[in-house]
Specification:
Blueprint: H1 10-17, H2 21-29, H3 38-51, H4 57-64, H5 66-70, E1 73-78, H6 87-102, E2 106-112, H7 119-125, E3 133-137, H8 146-158, E4 162-165, E5 173-176, H9 179-192, E6 198-202, H10 206-217, E7 226-229, H11 233-249, E8 257-260, H12 263-275, E9 285-290, E10 303-306, H13 309-321, E11 333-335, E12 339-341
Parallel strand pairs: 1-2, 1-3, 3-4, 4-5, 5-11, 6-7, 6-8, 8-9, 9-10
Antiparallel strand pairs: 10-12
Helix pairs in contact: 1-2, 1-3, 6-13, 9-10, 11-12
Length: 346
């Protein structure tokens, strides 16, 4: 609306900017069919700003067709609200948003998997007239029943372009890192540094197999591996506390090093060890997985396996944009490489 309450149109913007209406349409839609000179683009955007123009979505949908209008819209489904408190996932979401913006796509919604069990919301959002692609972030963490698996199948029947991020689902395209290999690298690094006994504290998944693989490759007794479950900083703190108690009760020597399933778990472990004046790495060495920003600012700074978090989100968007997010036997799985970031904790 302008100052007189009249709805501003693309024709008004064109007149204000001294260009054709089609030129205004190209700039607004982000179309790559026709190049627009930078100075012309700026003139149009300045006119939009001055006039307060807002696109008429109903008109766009009518012009392009509902599915055509939805083509550049991406939905994001997260495993739980807890994701918003986790820096690891914040970097994945940042990658999604940044890459979507760079490709002139829009994040239509961010929802939680459990919300899609509401049929009204499901039918409103999971529809080709609403979104052209869907990204499922770590949804494996909340698939607990046949009903949950059925919901994933229903989603895949509705939306053609789906990418799983940080997990893999049968028949769907995915972008992830190799959890087993990351943990194998972490444990192998400890053995190369001369630490002869290791424990594992973290997620109960392929990371445990990675530690066991490193034990076998370095001629260590796999049966001696002590494992504690943990997902968060608080979980890491509680797990190492419990582990200390168990080894003390058994009158056994505490492991010389700990492989942590994530940096957050490692930060909780460091907190406990520092509180109890247990020096790291002199008494207990620590290595973790993720390389979130805070891992370089702990005491001591964490040696960790770098996971390409932002890149996972970005690659997922790129697969939707270029149409490679296929399903069934044509599904694509992209494993992004990891690398060791050496610091002072081991």
């Amino acid at each position: 609306m302008d100052s007189r309450g009249k709805k501003v149109t693309q024709n008004d913007v064109a007149r204000e900017a001294g260009v054709t209406r089609s030129m205004v349409s190209y700039v607004i839609s982000g179309s790559n069919e026709r190049s627009v000179a930078p100075e012309t683009r700026k003139r149009i955007l300045d006119a939009i700003d001055r006039l307060g123009y807002r696109p008429n979505k109903a008109a766009q949908a009518l012009q392009q067709g509902n599915e055509g209008f939805a083509k550049n819209q991406i939905g994001v489904v997260l495993c739980s609200p807890d994701v918003f408190r986790r820096p690891y996932y914040a970097e994945i979401i940042e990658g999604i948003h940044t890459c979507a913006h760079e490709n002139k796509y829009h994040v239509r919604f961010i929802r939680f998997f459990s919300e899609l069990k509401n049929p009204v919301l499901f039918n409103e959002l999971i529809h080709p007239e609403e979104i052209g692609g869907l990204i499922l972030v770590s949804t494996d963490q909340c698939i607990k029943s046949p009903a949950d698996e059925k919901l994933v199948k229903k989603i895949s029947e509705r939306i053609k372009n789906i990418v799983c991020v940080e997990w893999k689902s049968e028949g769907l395209s995915s972008v992830l890192f190799d959890r087993q290999d990351a943990a194998r690298k972490a444990a192998s690094y400890l053995f190369q540094k001369g630490y002869d006994t290791v424990a594992y504290i973290g997620q109960q998944d392929d990371r445990i197999m990675g530690v066991k693989q490193a034990l076998l490759e370095n001629n260590k007794d796999v049966s001696t591996l002590h494992v504690e479950d943990a997902f968060t900083r608080a979980g890491g703190y509680s797990a190492v506390k419990e582990m200390t108690k168990i080894f003390k009760e058994k009158n056994q020597e505490f492991p010389r090093a700990i492989v942590c399933g994530s940096d957050e778990v490692a930060e909780g472990i460091l907190c406990y060890l520092n509180e109890h004046k247990i020096p790291v790495p002199q008494k207990v060495a620590i290595i973790s997985i993720d390389n979130i920003e805070s891992s370089g600012y702990t005491t001591p700074p964490l040696t960790t396996i770098n996971v390409q978090k932002s890149a996972m989100g970005c690659r997922a968007v790129e697969m939707i944009v270029n149409g490679s997010a296929a399903q069934g036997e044509n599904a694509v799985c992209i494993n992004l490489p990891t690398n060791i970031v050496e610091r002072s904790s081991c």
